[in-house]
Amino acid sequence: MKPYYLTTPIYYASGEPHIGHAYTTILTDTLARYGRQTGTDVTFLTGTDEHGQKMKEAAADKKTSPKELADKMAEGFKKAWIDLDISFDRFIRTTDQAHVDLVQDILIRLWENKEIYSDIYSGWYCIHEERYWTSREVGGQQLCPDCKRPVEYVEETNYFFRMGKYQERLLSHINKNPNWIIPKTRRNEVLGFLNKPLEDLSISRPKKRLDWGITLPFDESHVCYVWVDALFSYVTGSSFPSESTKGPEYNCWPADLQVVGKDILTTHSVYWPTLLMASNLPLPKKILAHGWWLSEDAKMSKSMGNVIDPLQLKEQFGTDAVRWYLLRDMPTGSDATFTKERFNTRYEELANVLGNLASRTISMIAKYKLGVLPSKTETDLKEELKETLHKFKQHMEELQVHSALDVAMDLARKANAYIDQKEPWALARDTAQVQSLDTTLATLHRILTLLTILLFPVMPEKMSELARRLGLSTVPTLNNFDVILSERSKVEEGSPLFPKDIL
Ligand code: ME8
Q1: Start-to-end CA span in the chain (Å)
Q2: Do the strands 287-290 and 42-49 form a parallel or antiparallel pair, or are they unpaired?
Q3: How far apart are CA 416 and CA 153, in angstroms?
Protein backbone atom coordinates (compact mmCIF):
# COMPACT_ATOMS: atom_id res chain seq x y z
CA MET A 1 0.00 0.00 0.00
CA LYS A 2 1.22 3.47 -0.89
CA PRO A 3 1.77 5.71 2.14
CA TYR A 4 -0.38 8.77 2.73
CA TYR A 5 1.76 11.43 1.09
CA LEU A 6 1.44 15.05 2.15
CA THR A 7 3.42 18.12 1.21
CA THR A 8 4.02 21.74 2.14
CA PRO A 9 5.00 24.27 -0.53
CA ILE A 10 8.73 24.38 -1.09
CA TYR A 11 9.68 27.79 0.24
CA TYR A 12 11.83 30.35 -1.57
CA ALA A 13 15.37 30.02 -0.33
CA SER A 14 15.89 33.75 -0.91
CA GLY A 15 14.53 34.70 2.51
CA GLU A 16 14.47 33.42 6.08
CA PRO A 17 11.59 31.24 7.31
CA HIS A 18 8.86 33.39 8.87
CA ILE A 19 5.68 32.78 10.80
CA GLY A 20 3.62 32.21 7.61
CA HIS A 21 5.98 29.43 6.49
CA ALA A 22 5.93 28.08 10.02
CA TYR A 23 2.13 27.98 10.05
CA THR A 24 1.84 25.93 6.84
CA THR A 25 4.55 23.58 8.01
CA ILE A 26 3.13 23.13 11.52
CA LEU A 27 -0.36 22.58 10.09
CA THR A 28 0.97 19.91 7.73
CA ASP A 29 3.04 18.39 10.51
CA THR A 30 -0.02 18.18 12.75
CA LEU A 31 -1.93 16.36 10.02
CA ALA A 32 1.04 14.04 9.45
CA ARG A 33 1.36 13.25 13.14
CA TYR A 34 -2.38 12.70 13.47
CA GLY A 35 -2.25 10.30 10.51
CA ARG A 36 0.56 8.33 12.14
CA GLN A 37 -1.40 8.18 15.38
CA THR A 38 -4.34 6.60 13.61
CA GLY A 39 -2.02 3.92 12.26
CA THR A 40 -1.53 5.39 8.77
CA ASP A 41 1.84 5.10 7.06
CA VAL A 42 2.65 8.74 6.32
CA THR A 43 5.27 10.38 4.13
CA PHE A 44 5.72 14.09 4.65
CA LEU A 45 7.68 16.31 2.25
CA THR A 46 8.91 19.87 2.61
CA GLY A 47 11.81 21.69 1.01
CA THR A 48 13.20 24.78 -0.66
CA ASP A 49 12.67 26.47 -4.03
CA GLU A 50 16.13 27.55 -5.12
CA HIS A 51 16.07 28.70 -8.76
CA GLY A 52 14.83 31.85 -10.47
CA GLN A 53 15.42 35.54 -10.68
CA LYS A 54 14.54 36.29 -7.07
CA MET A 55 17.16 33.86 -5.85
CA LYS A 56 19.74 35.28 -8.21
CA GLU A 57 19.08 38.81 -7.02
CA ALA A 58 19.12 37.85 -3.36
CA ALA A 59 22.52 36.20 -3.90
CA ALA A 60 23.85 39.28 -5.71
CA ASP A 61 22.66 41.48 -2.84
CA LYS A 62 24.52 39.30 -0.40
CA LYS A 63 27.58 39.17 -2.68
CA THR A 64 27.46 35.42 -2.93
CA SER A 65 26.48 32.86 -5.58
CA PRO A 66 22.90 31.55 -5.83
CA LYS A 67 24.08 28.03 -5.00
CA GLU A 68 25.99 29.15 -1.92
CA LEU A 69 23.01 31.15 -0.74
CA ALA A 70 20.70 28.18 -1.42
CA ASP A 71 22.96 25.85 0.57
CA LYS A 72 22.93 28.20 3.51
CA MET A 73 19.20 28.91 3.42
CA ALA A 74 18.19 25.27 2.92
CA GLU A 75 20.13 24.47 6.08
CA GLY A 76 18.38 27.38 7.83
CA PHE A 77 14.92 26.09 6.84
CA LYS A 78 15.81 22.55 7.88
CA LYS A 79 17.08 23.76 11.24
CA ALA A 80 13.98 25.88 11.78
CA TRP A 81 11.73 22.90 11.10
CA ILE A 82 13.74 20.67 13.42
CA ASP A 83 13.54 23.38 16.10
CA LEU A 84 9.77 23.53 15.65
CA ASP A 85 9.46 19.74 15.93
CA ILE A 86 8.44 19.19 12.32
CA SER A 87 8.45 15.48 11.55
CA PHE A 88 9.24 15.72 7.81
CA ASP A 89 10.44 12.55 6.11
CA ARG A 90 12.17 14.22 3.23
CA PHE A 91 13.50 17.68 2.47
CA ILE A 92 13.66 18.36 -1.26
CA ARG A 93 15.85 21.03 -2.81
CA THR A 94 15.30 22.04 -6.41
CA THR A 95 19.06 22.09 -6.98
CA ASP A 96 19.25 18.37 -6.07
CA GLN A 97 20.56 16.46 -9.07
CA ALA A 98 17.68 13.94 -8.87
CA HIS A 99 15.23 16.82 -9.23
CA VAL A 100 17.10 18.45 -12.14
CA ASP A 101 17.09 15.06 -13.91
CA LEU A 102 13.38 14.55 -13.29
CA VAL A 103 12.43 18.00 -14.59
CA GLN A 104 14.54 17.52 -17.71
CA ASP A 105 12.97 14.09 -18.32
CA ILE A 106 9.49 15.52 -18.02
CA LEU A 107 10.32 18.49 -20.27
CA ILE A 108 11.69 16.19 -22.99
CA ARG A 109 8.57 14.09 -22.78
CA LEU A 110 6.32 17.16 -23.06
CA TRP A 111 8.38 18.54 -25.95
CA GLU A 112 8.29 15.24 -27.86
CA ASN A 113 4.56 14.96 -27.30
CA LYS A 114 4.15 18.50 -28.68
CA GLU A 115 2.74 19.78 -25.40
CA ILE A 116 5.37 22.56 -25.61
CA TYR A 117 5.95 24.96 -28.53
CA SER A 118 8.08 28.08 -29.08
CA ASP A 119 6.71 31.57 -29.74
CA ILE A 120 7.55 35.23 -29.21
CA TYR A 121 6.36 36.60 -25.90
CA SER A 122 5.80 40.28 -25.37
CA GLY A 123 4.35 41.64 -22.19
CA TRP A 124 5.06 42.47 -18.58
CA TYR A 125 7.12 40.53 -16.08
CA CYS A 126 7.26 40.79 -12.29
CA ILE A 127 10.61 39.63 -11.02
CA HIS A 128 9.40 39.31 -7.46
CA GLU A 129 6.44 37.06 -8.26
CA GLU A 130 8.37 35.38 -11.08
CA ARG A 131 5.48 35.71 -13.47
CA TYR A 132 4.19 37.42 -16.59
CA TRP A 133 1.22 39.78 -16.60
CA THR A 134 -0.91 41.25 -19.37
CA SER A 135 -1.13 45.03 -20.00
CA ARG A 136 -4.66 45.01 -18.63
CA GLU A 137 -3.49 43.35 -15.44
CA VAL A 138 -0.62 45.77 -14.76
CA GLY A 139 -2.74 48.85 -15.57
CA GLY A 140 -1.51 52.34 -16.41
CA GLN A 141 0.91 52.46 -13.50
CA GLN A 142 2.56 49.22 -14.58
CA LEU A 143 2.52 47.59 -11.20
CA CYS A 144 2.34 43.91 -10.38
CA PRO A 145 -1.26 43.15 -9.32
CA ASP A 146 0.02 40.85 -6.56
CA CYS A 147 2.98 42.57 -4.93
CA LYS A 148 2.42 46.10 -6.31
CA ARG A 149 6.03 46.43 -7.46
CA PRO A 150 6.89 47.95 -10.88
CA VAL A 151 6.91 45.33 -13.63
CA GLU A 152 9.27 45.32 -16.62
CA TYR A 153 8.37 45.07 -20.30
CA VAL A 154 9.92 42.10 -22.10
CA GLU A 155 9.85 40.77 -25.63
CA GLU A 156 11.52 37.44 -26.08
CA THR A 157 11.37 34.00 -27.61
CA ASN A 158 9.74 31.69 -25.21
CA TYR A 159 8.51 28.16 -24.87
CA PHE A 160 4.86 27.65 -24.01
CA PHE A 161 2.98 24.78 -22.49
CA ARG A 162 -0.40 24.10 -24.10
CA MET A 163 -2.21 24.70 -20.85
CA GLY A 164 -5.34 26.07 -22.54
CA LYS A 165 -6.17 22.76 -24.11
CA TYR A 166 -6.69 21.21 -20.66
CA GLN A 167 -9.24 23.75 -19.49
CA GLU A 168 -12.30 21.54 -20.02
CA ARG A 169 -10.66 18.50 -18.48
CA LEU A 170 -9.62 20.51 -15.44
CA LEU A 171 -13.08 22.04 -15.04
CA SER A 172 -14.67 18.65 -15.26
CA HIS A 173 -12.25 17.30 -12.63
CA ILE A 174 -13.08 20.14 -10.23
CA ASN A 175 -16.80 19.76 -10.82
CA LYS A 176 -16.74 16.02 -10.29
CA ASN A 177 -14.62 16.27 -7.13
CA PRO A 178 -16.21 18.85 -4.85
CA ASN A 179 -13.58 18.27 -2.16
CA TRP A 180 -10.56 18.43 -4.40
CA ILE A 181 -9.89 22.03 -3.41
CA ILE A 182 -10.82 23.03 0.11
CA PRO A 183 -12.21 25.20 1.58
CA LYS A 184 -15.18 25.84 -0.73
CA THR A 185 -14.52 29.58 -0.98
CA ARG A 186 -11.14 28.87 -2.55
CA ARG A 187 -12.63 26.27 -4.87
CA ASN A 188 -15.08 28.90 -6.08
CA GLU A 189 -12.22 31.31 -6.75
CA VAL A 190 -10.57 28.72 -8.98
CA LEU A 191 -13.83 28.03 -10.78
CA GLY A 192 -14.19 31.79 -11.30
CA PHE A 193 -10.68 31.93 -12.74
CA LEU A 194 -11.55 29.09 -15.11
CA ASN A 195 -14.59 30.97 -16.34
CA LYS A 196 -12.28 32.94 -18.61
CA PRO A 197 -10.37 31.21 -21.41
CA LEU A 198 -7.26 29.55 -20.04
CA GLU A 199 -4.13 30.78 -21.79
CA ASP A 200 -1.04 28.75 -22.55
CA LEU A 201 1.76 29.04 -20.01
CA SER A 202 5.24 30.35 -20.68
CA ILE A 203 7.58 27.75 -19.23
CA SER A 204 11.00 29.15 -20.11
CA ARG A 205 13.25 32.14 -19.59
CA PRO A 206 16.06 33.03 -22.00
CA LYS A 207 19.44 32.52 -20.36
CA LYS A 208 20.58 35.94 -21.49
CA ARG A 209 18.09 37.34 -18.98
CA LEU A 210 18.21 34.62 -16.36
CA ASP A 211 20.73 31.82 -16.20
CA TRP A 212 19.94 30.44 -12.74
CA GLY A 213 17.60 27.55 -13.42
CA ILE A 214 17.26 24.13 -15.01
CA THR A 215 18.39 24.17 -18.65
CA LEU A 216 15.73 23.16 -21.16
CA PRO A 217 16.91 19.84 -22.56
CA PHE A 218 15.75 20.78 -26.08
CA ASP A 219 17.16 24.35 -26.10
CA GLU A 220 20.24 25.09 -24.06
CA SER A 221 19.75 28.84 -24.38
CA HIS A 222 16.75 28.74 -22.03
CA VAL A 223 16.07 27.74 -18.46
CA CYS A 224 12.83 26.30 -17.14
CA TYR A 225 10.34 28.72 -15.52
CA VAL A 226 10.88 28.47 -11.78
CA TRP A 227 7.27 27.53 -11.00
CA VAL A 228 7.27 24.55 -13.37
CA ASP A 229 10.58 23.44 -11.87
CA ALA A 230 9.27 23.90 -8.30
CA LEU A 231 5.95 22.11 -8.79
CA PHE A 232 7.63 18.96 -10.03
CA SER A 233 9.63 18.81 -6.79
CA TYR A 234 6.56 17.13 -5.31
CA VAL A 235 7.10 14.27 -7.73
CA THR A 236 10.87 14.13 -7.18
CA GLY A 237 10.24 14.16 -3.44
CA SER A 238 7.79 11.28 -3.72
CA SER A 239 10.38 8.88 -4.95
CA PHE A 240 12.97 7.98 -2.42
CA PRO A 241 16.52 7.28 -3.54
CA SER A 242 17.96 3.84 -3.04
CA GLU A 243 19.94 4.74 0.07
CA SER A 244 16.63 5.37 1.81
CA THR A 245 15.44 2.62 4.08
CA LYS A 246 12.27 2.44 2.05
CA GLY A 247 14.06 0.89 -0.96
CA PRO A 248 14.65 1.88 -4.58
CA GLU A 249 11.14 1.22 -5.89
CA TYR A 250 9.50 3.43 -3.34
CA ASN A 251 7.27 6.07 -4.85
CA CYS A 252 4.28 7.65 -3.25
CA TRP A 253 3.00 10.01 -5.95
CA PRO A 254 0.18 11.12 -6.19
CA ALA A 255 0.11 13.27 -3.07
CA ASP A 256 -2.90 12.62 -0.86
CA LEU A 257 -2.86 16.17 0.42
CA GLN A 258 -1.01 19.30 -0.69
CA VAL A 259 -1.14 22.14 1.81
CA VAL A 260 -0.57 25.64 0.41
CA GLY A 261 -1.37 29.24 1.24
CA LYS A 262 -4.11 30.95 -0.76
CA ASP A 263 -1.47 33.07 -2.53
CA ILE A 264 -0.30 30.08 -4.54
CA LEU A 265 -3.61 28.41 -5.22
CA THR A 266 -3.70 29.17 -8.96
CA THR A 267 -0.30 27.66 -9.55
CA HIS A 268 -1.35 24.56 -7.59
CA SER A 269 -4.86 24.10 -8.87
CA VAL A 270 -4.43 25.22 -12.50
CA TYR A 271 -0.79 25.09 -13.66
CA TRP A 272 0.04 22.00 -11.67
CA PRO A 273 -2.84 19.66 -12.57
CA THR A 274 -2.65 20.58 -16.25
CA LEU A 275 1.10 19.93 -16.29
CA LEU A 276 0.43 16.58 -14.65
CA MET A 277 -2.29 15.75 -17.17
CA ALA A 278 0.08 16.51 -20.01
CA SER A 279 2.76 14.36 -18.36
CA ASN A 280 0.33 11.46 -17.90
CA LEU A 281 0.77 11.57 -14.16
CA PRO A 282 -2.09 11.33 -11.64
CA LEU A 283 -3.35 14.47 -9.93
CA PRO A 284 -2.97 15.11 -6.20
CA LYS A 285 -6.02 13.87 -4.32
CA LYS A 286 -6.66 17.07 -2.38
CA ILE A 287 -5.42 20.65 -2.08
CA LEU A 288 -5.92 22.61 1.11
CA ALA A 289 -5.48 26.36 0.64
CA HIS A 290 -5.23 28.11 3.99
CA GLY A 291 -5.47 31.81 4.73
CA TRP A 292 -2.87 34.40 5.64
CA TRP A 293 -1.42 35.54 8.88
CA LEU A 294 -1.86 39.26 8.86
CA SER A 295 -0.16 41.96 10.79
CA GLU A 296 -2.45 44.92 11.31
CA ASP A 297 -4.58 43.73 8.38
CA ALA A 298 -1.70 43.42 5.90
CA LYS A 299 -0.29 40.08 4.77
CA MET A 300 2.78 39.25 6.74
CA SER A 301 5.61 38.91 4.28
CA LYS A 302 9.29 39.55 4.04
CA SER A 303 8.80 42.26 1.44
CA MET A 304 6.33 44.12 3.67
CA GLY A 305 8.90 44.08 6.47
CA ASN A 306 6.29 43.00 9.00
CA VAL A 307 7.27 39.39 9.58
CA ILE A 308 7.53 37.64 12.89
CA ASP A 309 10.39 35.24 13.42
CA PRO A 310 8.99 31.91 14.64
CA LEU A 311 12.34 30.92 16.12
CA GLN A 312 12.50 34.02 18.27
CA LEU A 313 9.00 33.21 19.56
CA LYS A 314 10.10 29.66 20.19
CA GLU A 315 13.09 30.90 22.21
CA GLN A 316 10.80 32.93 24.40
CA PHE A 317 7.76 30.67 24.81
CA GLY A 318 8.79 27.19 23.70
CA THR A 319 7.91 25.26 20.56
CA ASP A 320 4.54 23.92 21.67
CA ALA A 321 3.19 27.31 22.70
CA VAL A 322 3.96 28.63 19.21
CA ARG A 323 2.45 25.56 17.51
CA TRP A 324 -0.63 25.81 19.71
CA TYR A 325 -1.23 29.49 19.09
CA LEU A 326 -0.90 29.23 15.32
CA LEU A 327 -3.25 26.28 14.97
CA ARG A 328 -5.70 27.27 17.67
CA ASP A 329 -6.19 30.88 16.60
CA MET A 330 -6.49 30.52 12.83
CA PRO A 331 -9.66 28.87 11.54
CA THR A 332 -8.23 26.56 8.88
CA GLY A 333 -8.82 28.33 5.58
CA SER A 334 -9.45 31.88 6.89
CA ASP A 335 -7.11 34.77 7.63
CA ALA A 336 -6.05 35.66 11.18
CA THR A 337 -4.22 38.58 12.71
CA PHE A 338 -1.14 37.88 14.76
CA THR A 339 -1.09 39.79 18.03
CA LYS A 340 0.71 39.28 21.30
CA GLU A 341 -2.62 39.66 23.12
CA ARG A 342 -4.13 36.73 21.18
CA PHE A 343 -0.99 34.73 21.80
CA ASN A 344 -1.31 35.36 25.54
CA THR A 345 -5.03 34.52 25.56
CA ARG A 346 -4.44 31.20 23.84
CA TYR A 347 -1.53 30.36 26.11
CA GLU A 348 -3.54 31.25 29.21
CA GLU A 349 -6.26 28.92 28.00
CA LEU A 350 -3.70 26.11 27.96
CA ALA A 351 -2.44 26.99 31.41
CA ASN A 352 -5.86 27.55 33.00
CA VAL A 353 -7.77 24.70 31.43
CA LEU A 354 -5.38 21.90 30.48
CA GLY A 355 -2.47 22.70 32.79
CA ASN A 356 -4.84 23.17 35.71
CA LEU A 357 -6.69 19.92 35.00
CA ALA A 358 -3.39 18.03 34.80
CA SER A 359 -1.95 19.45 38.01
CA ARG A 360 -5.17 18.98 40.01
CA THR A 361 -5.61 15.41 38.81
CA ILE A 362 -2.00 14.35 39.29
CA SER A 363 -1.70 15.91 42.72
CA MET A 364 -4.95 14.28 43.89
CA ILE A 365 -3.83 10.86 42.66
CA ALA A 366 -0.49 11.42 44.40
CA LYS A 367 -2.14 12.56 47.62
CA TYR A 368 -5.11 10.23 47.93
CA LYS A 369 -3.78 7.11 46.17
CA LEU A 370 -0.04 7.44 46.76
CA GLY A 371 0.35 7.98 43.03
CA VAL A 372 -1.23 4.75 41.83
CA LEU A 373 -4.81 4.13 40.77
CA PRO A 374 -6.17 0.61 41.13
CA SER A 375 -6.40 -0.99 37.68
CA LYS A 376 -9.78 -1.82 36.16
CA THR A 377 -11.55 1.03 37.96
CA GLU A 378 -14.93 2.07 36.58
CA THR A 379 -15.04 5.50 34.92
CA ASP A 380 -17.70 8.16 34.35
CA LEU A 381 -18.26 10.53 31.43
CA LYS A 382 -18.06 7.66 28.94
CA GLU A 383 -20.51 9.31 26.55
CA GLU A 384 -18.57 12.60 26.65
CA LEU A 385 -15.37 10.77 25.79
CA LYS A 386 -16.98 8.93 22.91
CA GLU A 387 -18.58 12.10 21.59
CA THR A 388 -15.29 14.02 21.84
CA LEU A 389 -13.43 11.36 19.96
CA HIS A 390 -16.07 11.17 17.28
CA LYS A 391 -16.20 14.93 16.73
CA PHE A 392 -12.42 15.30 16.92
CA LYS A 393 -11.91 12.67 14.21
CA GLN A 394 -14.57 14.23 12.05
CA HIS A 395 -12.98 17.68 12.24
CA MET A 396 -9.53 16.30 11.53
CA GLU A 397 -10.81 14.39 8.53
CA GLU A 398 -12.36 17.63 7.28
CA LEU A 399 -9.00 19.32 7.99
CA GLN A 400 -10.66 21.75 10.39
CA VAL A 401 -7.85 21.53 12.93
CA HIS A 402 -8.95 24.54 14.98
CA SER A 403 -12.38 22.94 15.49
CA ALA A 404 -10.78 19.65 16.55
CA LEU A 405 -8.71 21.56 19.13
CA ASP A 406 -11.85 23.27 20.32
CA VAL A 407 -13.50 19.91 20.94
CA ALA A 408 -10.46 18.70 22.92
CA MET A 409 -10.43 21.83 25.07
CA ASP A 410 -14.15 21.44 25.71
CA LEU A 411 -13.51 18.02 27.15
CA ALA A 412 -10.81 19.48 29.42
CA ARG A 413 -13.31 22.13 30.57
CA LYS A 414 -15.91 19.45 31.28
CA ALA A 415 -13.35 17.51 33.28
CA ASN A 416 -12.58 20.58 35.40
CA ALA A 417 -16.29 21.06 36.03
CA TYR A 418 -16.54 17.37 36.93
CA ILE A 419 -13.86 17.86 39.62
CA ASP A 420 -15.81 20.76 41.09
CA GLN A 421 -18.99 18.73 41.04
CA LYS A 422 -17.50 15.54 42.54
CA GLU A 423 -15.32 17.27 45.13
CA PRO A 424 -12.78 14.45 45.42
CA TRP A 425 -11.29 16.15 48.51
CA ALA A 426 -14.61 15.51 50.28
CA LEU A 427 -14.81 11.93 48.99
CA ALA A 428 -11.29 11.33 50.30
CA ARG A 429 -12.38 12.20 53.83
CA ASP A 430 -15.11 9.57 53.83
CA THR A 431 -14.00 5.91 53.89
CA ALA A 432 -17.39 4.82 52.56
CA GLN A 433 -16.64 6.76 49.37
CA VAL A 434 -13.43 4.95 48.33
CA GLN A 435 -15.04 3.49 45.25
CA SER A 436 -16.48 6.82 44.22
CA LEU A 437 -13.12 8.53 44.72
CA ASP A 438 -11.37 5.89 42.61
CA THR A 439 -13.96 6.28 39.84
CA THR A 440 -13.57 10.06 39.88
CA LEU A 441 -9.79 9.95 39.72
CA ALA A 442 -9.77 7.19 37.10
CA THR A 443 -12.17 9.22 34.97
CA LEU A 444 -9.90 12.25 35.16
CA HIS A 445 -6.85 10.15 34.40
CA ARG A 446 -8.58 8.59 31.41
CA ILE A 447 -9.65 11.98 30.06
CA LEU A 448 -6.13 13.37 30.41
CA THR A 449 -4.76 10.30 28.66
CA LEU A 450 -7.16 10.84 25.78
CA LEU A 451 -6.14 14.50 25.67
CA THR A 452 -2.47 13.55 25.33
CA ILE A 453 -3.44 11.57 22.23
CA LEU A 454 -5.62 14.27 20.73
CA LEU A 455 -3.22 17.13 21.43
CA PHE A 456 0.03 15.29 20.72
CA PRO A 457 0.00 16.18 16.98
CA VAL A 458 -0.01 19.90 17.91
CA MET A 459 2.09 19.77 21.08
CA PRO A 460 4.34 16.71 20.83
CA GLU A 461 6.74 17.87 23.53
CA LYS A 462 4.23 18.87 26.20
CA MET A 463 1.95 15.90 25.59
CA SER A 464 4.90 13.48 25.91
CA GLU A 465 5.72 15.16 29.20
CA LEU A 466 2.10 14.93 30.35
CA ALA A 467 1.93 11.24 29.43
CA ARG A 468 5.09 10.63 31.47
CA ARG A 469 3.62 12.45 34.47
CA LEU A 470 0.45 10.38 34.14
CA GLY A 471 2.62 7.29 34.60
CA LEU A 472 2.32 6.16 30.98
CA SER A 473 5.29 4.67 29.15
CA THR A 474 4.47 6.68 26.02
CA VAL A 475 1.74 8.81 24.45
CA PRO A 476 -0.79 6.18 23.38
CA THR A 477 -2.24 6.10 19.87
CA LEU A 478 -5.93 5.83 19.16
CA ASN A 479 -5.36 2.12 18.58
CA ASN A 480 -3.46 1.18 21.76
CA PHE A 481 -5.16 3.59 24.17
CA ASP A 482 -6.53 0.94 26.53
CA VAL A 483 -3.38 -1.19 26.49
CA ILE A 484 -1.12 1.71 27.49
CA LEU A 485 -3.65 2.83 30.11
CA SER A 486 -3.75 -0.61 31.68
CA GLU A 487 0.04 -0.52 32.04
CA ARG A 488 0.19 2.85 33.79
CA SER A 489 2.56 3.24 36.71
CA LYS A 490 2.88 5.88 39.40
CA VAL A 491 1.98 9.47 38.50
CA GLU A 492 4.59 12.13 38.96
CA GLU A 493 3.96 15.63 40.25
CA GLY A 494 6.01 18.47 38.85
CA SER A 495 6.18 22.14 38.04
CA PRO A 496 3.29 23.56 35.96
CA LEU A 497 3.10 22.15 32.43
CA PHE A 498 2.34 25.63 31.09
CA PRO A 499 3.97 28.13 33.46
CA LYS A 500 2.34 31.54 33.22
CA ASP A 501 5.40 33.52 34.22
CA ILE A 502 6.86 33.17 30.71
CA LEU A 503 4.27 35.56 29.26
O1 ME8 B 1 5.47 30.74 -2.96
N2 ME8 B 1 0.37 33.60 6.19
O3 ME8 B 1 7.30 30.24 -1.67
P4 ME8 B 1 7.18 31.25 -0.46
C5 ME8 B 1 0.23 32.29 6.00
N6 ME8 B 1 8.38 28.88 -3.62
N7 ME8 B 1 1.06 31.57 5.22
C8 ME8 B 1 2.06 32.21 4.61
C9 ME8 B 1 2.27 33.59 4.76
C10 ME8 B 1 1.36 34.30 5.61
N11 ME8 B 1 1.47 35.60 5.86
N12 ME8 B 1 3.35 33.94 4.05
C13 ME8 B 1 3.82 32.80 3.47
C14 ME8 B 1 6.52 30.15 -2.77
N15 ME8 B 1 3.05 31.74 3.81
C16 ME8 B 1 7.01 29.12 -3.78
C17 ME8 B 1 6.20 27.85 -3.60
S18 ME8 B 1 5.63 25.31 -4.24
C19 ME8 B 1 5.88 24.35 -5.58
C20 ME8 B 1 6.53 26.77 -4.59
C21 ME8 B 1 3.23 30.34 3.43
O22 ME8 B 1 8.47 31.17 0.29
C23 ME8 B 1 2.06 29.85 2.60
O24 ME8 B 1 2.05 28.45 2.61
O25 ME8 B 1 6.73 32.59 -0.93
C26 ME8 B 1 2.44 30.33 1.23
O27 ME8 B 1 1.72 29.69 0.21
C28 ME8 B 1 3.91 29.98 1.22
O29 ME8 B 1 4.35 30.26 2.57
C30 ME8 B 1 4.71 30.80 0.22
O31 ME8 B 1 6.06 30.60 0.46
Answers
A1: 46
A2: unpaired
A3: 64
Residue 321, SS3 per DSSP? helix
- H or E stretch covering 461: helix 460-469
10-42: pLDDT as tens digits: 999 999 999 999 999 999 999 999 999 999 999
> Residue 471 Cα, ligand 1 centroid: separation in angstroms?
41
Contact call for residues 212 and 224 (beta carbons, < 8 A): no
Mutate to test the pocket of ligand 1, among 6, 24, 327 (most ligand atoms within 8 A of CB): 24
Neighbouring CB atoms inside 10 A of 374's CB total 11
Q: Which superfamily does 339-502 belong to?
A: Isoleucyl-tRNA Synthetase; Domain 1 (1.10.730.10)
- 0.85 exceeded by pTM: yes
- 75-212-203 Cα angle (round to 5): 115
CA nearest to 230, candidates 127, 133, 92: 92
Which atom belonging to ligand 1 lies closest to the Cα atom of 272?
Answer: 19
Residues touching ligand 1 (Cβ under 6 Å) are 9-12, 20-21, 23-24, 49, 230-231, 260-261, 263-264, 292-293, 299-301
The residue whose CA is least distant from atom 9 of ligand 1 is 20
Q: How far apart are CA 365 and CA 488, in angstroms?
A: 13
List pLDDT tens digits, range 400-427. Answer: 999 999 999 999 999 999 999 999 999 9
For ligand 1, atom 4: residue with the closest CA: 11
